[in-house]
Every structure is written in C-alpha cells, then in structure tokens.
Write a structure and sequence with these properties.
The chain is built from twelve helices and 15 strands. It has 428 residues and is α/β, with parallel strands linked by helices.
C-alpha cells in the first residue's frame, strides 16, 4: 500500500524544488503502482460546484450502470455544497465520505483518481499534491493560473508516474486539420482567425466587478481555505459564487482563460505547436487594465517563429469581423468557418499524408497506464497561450516571448507574471 501524505506534513514541510508543493520530496511507495485493466477504481471529486457536480453526476451514473468505479470521496471548502454532493452519492448507494479539506482526501490509500474541479488558482497545487500522493488526475480547465505552474504540474506527473487529463477534448476531433496543415496545401504562412463568428469568449459575462464591498462570510464557507494561495481579500459573494471567480485575476483569467481553453486545444494541436509557443503577442484592449477585475478586450494576436499567426477577436468590443472571414487561410487555400475549403476538395487530397500519432482518451489512458491526448505537457502549452494573451491585455503592449526558455525577452515587468508568488504557506 502507498504511504499517504498527512495533513500535518503537508503544511510543515518545505518544498525543495520546482514541481514540489509544501510536501516532502519523497516518492510514495505506491506512486508508480499500475492498476490492472479490470480493476475497479476509486474516484474522488475535489470541488463540487457547477462543473464538479456535473462530473459527479457522470460518475454516479457510471457507478450505478457499469459498476466499474467506486465513489470514494467528495470535497469542498463550502460545507453546504459538500453535504449536498455527499447526499447525492449516498442516495445512489455509494459508500462515499465527505471532506472540506482536499488533503484529507489525498491521505486515503484507497483513492485512485481525483477530479480537480476547484477554481483555477488551486489547480496546480492540488494536482501536484495528488500526483505525490499516488493519484491519477483529471483537472478542469484552464490548466493553471500562471505559466510556471504548468511546467511544475507536468514535471510532477512525470516524476510520480501518474496519468493526467485536462478538462477539454477538442483536439481528438481535429486529426484531418492537422494533416491539412502538415500537407502544405494551404501554403505558408498560415493564419487562423479565431473570431466571434465561430467562438464565444464570454468576455462581458466573465468580467469582474470593480465595486466590491466586504460582505460577511457565510458560516458554511471556509473563506481562508477558499483563498488558499491567493492574496487575502475581503469576502464578497461575487468572488466565488456561480463561477464568478472567473472575473478576477487572483483566481482566473476572465472569459478568455475559461472559454479559449476549449478553443485553443484543437488549434494548437493541428498547427503543430504542442511543444512550442508564440514569439510575439499583442492585444487591443482598454488600458490601463483594472488591477483586480478582468475586463473587455477587442483582439489578441499571436505570431509564431515560423511566421504563422493566430488572431482572436471577441466581437464584444471594437469592430466586428466580416461574416465571410476564413477560419484558416494561407496563400494557396482556405478553410471557411463552416469547414468548407477554397478551392473545394482540399481534404480529399490528404490520402498520401501520414496519419498523426494516435491519441488515447482519458479512460483508455488509465487502463493502459499511458498519457492521453490531453496530457499535462500539451495542456501547459495551451494554458501558456492563454496567460500570454491576458498579460498582453494587462500590460498594454506587445510582448516578446521565448517559448523554449519560457521567458519574456527584455521585459522585467512581464517576467514577474511568469511565476507569481503565492500566499504563505503555499508555494511551488
């Protein structure tokens, strides 16, 4: 049996390197264990708000139907939410325990898989700690809140031999587009227009308020634990309830970080950028940006070292794109917003183009003990694109980025956002 990470050790012991998080740098004895394909896995959901409850519902249905999983634990810093989720499990006949501290879930030897469905400012810390405790991880998007967290999670997944999947699966349906880009039929450079005609970034919906007043903390909510690594701020319901955390830089990155996590996953995949990133990032947005609340923006443009460009337009600020703008275009061909090509039949010319490597889905990866298509490393690259775009909005200037070193070039202020300090005792 693996040796669990105890709560007292979690806070008492200092981290000793990137990818560690306030836990001993000791490989648990069971961290590299590999469940057999027929083993019933015990799963836990950490964070049972909107998306957490959706995951829980799917797991309950599976528990009652296929009976190949057990519902071991639910956890939330809001006791009322936790108790509601626990009741759902118990009513379904599951032997589930409820917790308000995720570390108690990770202490349990019998938990195999955790679903990390907290606000994003907790994603990295919980995911890393879960890996160290010998658990496989399904983490909701966006992957992380800042860039250095992503590499720390990916390194922890590798170090502890765990399986990881991000909470989006768009890349699995875009193999033909990857072949099209690789074929060169569109010519070079290629431009991807990620416009509001195809994508809803929910910019206004997930913009934060700038007039928050302190409110009493509900008795069922552990506000200090909800904040965790984020700066101490007076409680206001708009900071957390109903997904409103998305509108504040301390916890997330607005509608762009939320929705574009879905949108960029397939685009980064079919453009072949899973192991790199842009070299220049420029945004058109009101400036100065508010220091706490995410706000409106018009466009974000990414330029890559090969000359290709990805441009996002929100459609909620500034001018709108014309309805006939291509989705993907090069000097020799285009893919329109509806997937039709100009000239017609480009997808029919891909027979001689090699097939991309196959990708495992989440459940197959768990059974085969291999990394899935939506693994931690590609999730890190996708999340980095989102963070870079938001930084261009916040800083109000073009940014130059070295995707290999993961460093800004000649911009000390921007560099401070790569690895943002956390509130003690939490840290990478």
């Amino acid at each position: 049996m693996s040796q669990p990470l105890r709560r007292r050790d979690f806070l008492r012991t200092c981290a000793v390197g990137a990818g560690a998080v306030a836990v001993p740098y000791i490989l648990p004895s069971g961290a590299l264990s590999q469940p057999s394909a027929n083993e019933v896995t015990v799963r836990a959901v950490i964070g049972v708000g909107g998306m957490g409850n959706a995951h829980l519902g799917n797991l309950i249905n599976r528990f009652q139907g296929q009976k190949d999983i057990r519902l071991g634990a639910v956890c939330d810093v809001n006791r009322a939410r936790m108790e509601g989720a626990l009741k759902r499990c118990l009513d379904a006949g599951a032997d589930t325990k409820g917790y308000t501290d995720f570390r108690e879930v990770l202490d349990r030897d019998d938990i195999d898989v955790v679903y990390v469905v907290t606000p994003p400012h907790w994603h990295a810390l919980v995911s890393i700690a879960a890996c160290q405790a010998g658990k496989d991880v399904y983490c909701e998007k966006p992957f992380t809140k800042f860039i250095a967290e992503g590499r720390a999670v990916a390194e922890a997944v590798d170090r502890y031999g765990r399986v990881f999947h991000i909470g989006t699966a768009g890349r699995y349906g875009h193999r033909a587009y990857r072949k099209l880009i690789a074929s060169g039929l569109l010519g070079a450079p290629v431009r991807v227009n990620m416009t509001h005609r195809k994508y809803n970034y929910k910019v206004r919906e997930w913009s934060g308020r700038t007039d928050l007043k302190p409110e009493p903390v509900p008795p069922e909510l552990d506000w200090n634990m909800w904040l965790g690594p984020a700066p101490v701020k007076p409680h206001n319901t708009d900071r957390w309830n109903g997904g409103r955390f998305r509108g504040y830089w301390d916890y997330d990155g607005g509608g762009f970080a939320d929705m574009a996590a879905h949108f960029f996953d397939p685009v980064i995949y079919f453009m072949g950028y899973d192991d790199t990133g842009p070299v220049e990032i420029e945004a058109v947005a009101p400036w100065p940006a508010h220091p706490e609340a995410c706000g409106m923006w018009e466009s974000i443009t990414y330029t890559f070292a090969d000359g290709n460009v990805i441009c996002c337009t929100s459609g909620e600020s500034g001018k709108e794109d014309p309805p006939d703008i291509p989705w993907i275009e090069g000097p020799k061909g285009k893919v329109m917003q509806d997937g039709k090509t100009d000239p017609p039949g480009l997808f029919d010319q891909l027979g001689s183009v090699p097939e991309p490597p196959p990708m495992l889905d989440w459940e197959s990866a768990l059974r085969e003990r291999k990394q899935p298509g939506g693994n931690a490393w590609v999730s890190h690259r996708v999340a980095s694109v989102l963070h870079l775009g938001n930084l261009a909005i916040r800083l109000g200037r073009k940014l130059r980025w070295d995707p290999a070193k993961e460093q800004f070039i000649g911009d000390e202020q921007a560099s401070q956002f790569v690895n943002i300090p956390m509130r003690a005792p939490w840290h990478l």
